[in-house]
């Protein structure tokens, strides 16, 4: 009986859709045979030019958007079908921790609107819940304090 190597030199492959793993030593080929190394290097140069505050706020907006959809705030006839409060709770908690940690780095002019959006999501979650959480027990409230 053989067991897999507990410390493989190469991690198992994962399908991450359009995400990239950059290896400066490896040249990757796309389906048409074109070289993607130059494209990845250009993307790295592009992201290097973006200020940290923009990267942080963009990440926060992505979390907010996902949480809003999961709270049932999406537009369209299928909004109710997209509601998933368990997933929304996770996203809101992650957003709360992220915004709390990032606030001193990005300043109040950027953190204020993020906190407002977070609070709106926390309130939307509370309204969407059939059984509301106790004050201080809602998603992200361990980072933000009770929201009412």
Task: Give the topology.
Layout: H1 37-48, H2 52-70, H3 79-82, H4 85-106, H5 108-128, H6 141-144
Helix pairs in contact: 2-4, 2-5, 4-5
Key features of this structure:
148 residues, globular, single chain, mainly alpha
List low-confidence stretches.
1-28
**How far is the first residue's CA from the last residue's CA?**
59 Å
Output the number of helix runs. 6
Give a quick account of the main beta sheet: strands, pairing sense, barrel closure. none
Rg, alpha carbons:
20 Å
Shape: globular
Q: Element order, helices and strands?
A: HHHHHH
Given helix and strand content, the structural type is: mainly alpha
Helix content: 55-70%
Number of strands: 0
SS strand fraction: under 5%
Mean pLDDT: 83
Outline:
This protein is mostly helical. The chain contains six helices and no strands.
Protein architecture, described:
The protein is mostly helical and 148 residues long. The chain has six helices and no strands. The chain has helices at residues 37-48, 52-70, 79-82, 85-106, 108-128, 141-144. The longest helix is centred in the middle third of the chain and has 22 residues, at 85-106. The chain starts with 36 loop residues before the first helix and ends with a helix. 17% of the residues are buried.
